[in-house]
Backbone:
């Protein structure tokens, strides 16, 4: 399965799950600034400039830098944005989408220069040491928008076996805690912002709730569900508390329930916005 295809698929779910009150706050935080500058770190395939344009959050004349350490996803972002109905591509490779000029920079977020009006990190902070990353992003900008910070719930319904489901969820979250990021990033961002001298001025949950509607899943939802079940299965494979044969049966059961249009998936996440100092 493809990570880029997954990122594009999740955009259609996020279109309905990003919290509107936090988006309103982002609009207020940059309102009145002439030609505001935005730095998005870990921009992936470019979903956020599309969301912000469609939700009319950024003023005309905004200059938006989409930074990612993965040049391949940025190529996809450039292509995707240039195919958007409101876009025009300039000779320098930047794409103007509905009055916002989006440029693409391949690099590490810790090497980025500061001076931005707004820093955006969308579904990224749970991959990083949260305190250090938040401090760095607040240093780069006057205000911040951190949507889709994962916050410790990965649930599938119907259950396979409650005890085994719980062990899988715990083992999956432990793999996040073992990496730089943390499975409870959303709630940790509040303290990280305060410790960095900033202020959270809006926060709300942006949970993903995927379920088969009257017409079943959309193509994007089906892809996203398969990707998530396989990601969870791969992540916990080899964990001492997870029996390998049962895990295989768990994955097969979840995939079959996707085919049968039956599986419900819930991920708890938090969107936050505020001032950097
Ligand atoms: C889960 S994806 C999210 C992409 C996009 N924001 C979205 O939600 O569709 C995380 C992205 O962060 C990027 N990333 C992770 N660590 C980074 C770093 N230190 N500097 C720059 N980009 C980073 C990855 O390459 C990846 O594209």
Residues:
């Amino acid at each position: 399965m493809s990570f880029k295809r997954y990122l594009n698929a999740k955009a259609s779910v996020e279109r309905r799950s990003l919290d509107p009150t936090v988006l309103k706050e982002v609009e207020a935080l940059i309102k009145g600034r002439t030609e505001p500058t935005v730095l998005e770190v870990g921009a992936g395939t470019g979903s956020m400039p599309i969301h912000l344009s469609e939700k009319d959050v950024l003023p005309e004349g905004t200059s938006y830098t989409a930074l990612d350490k993965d040049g391949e996803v940025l190529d996809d972002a450039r292509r995707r944005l240039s195919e958007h109905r409101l876009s025009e591509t300039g000779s320098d490779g930047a794409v103007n989408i509905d009055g916002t000029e989006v440029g693409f920079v391949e690099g590490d977020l810790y090497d980025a220069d500061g001076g931005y009006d707004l820093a955006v990190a969308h579904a990224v902070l749970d991959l990083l040491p949260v305190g250090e990353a938040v401090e760095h992003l607040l240093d780069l900008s006057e205000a911040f928008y951190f949507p889709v910070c994962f916050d410790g719930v990965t649930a599938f319904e119907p259950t396979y076996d409650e005890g085994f489901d719980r062990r899988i969820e715990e083992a999956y979250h432990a793999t996040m805690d073992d990496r730089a990021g943390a499975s409870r990033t959303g709630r940790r961002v509040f303290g990280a912002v305060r410790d960095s001298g900033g202020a959270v001025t809006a926060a709300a949950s942006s949970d993903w709730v995927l379920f088969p509607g009257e017409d079943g899943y959309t193509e994007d939802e089906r892809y996203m569900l398969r990707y998530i079940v396989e990601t969870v299965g791969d992540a916990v494979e080899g964990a001492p508390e997870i029996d390998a044969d049962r895990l295989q049966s768990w994955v097969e059961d979840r995939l079959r329930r996707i085919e049968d249009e039956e599986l419900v998936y819930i991920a708890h996440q938090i969107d936050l916005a505020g001032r950097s100092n």
Observations:
- The mean pLDDT is 96.
- The chain has one domain: 3-275.
- The radius of gyration is 19 Å.
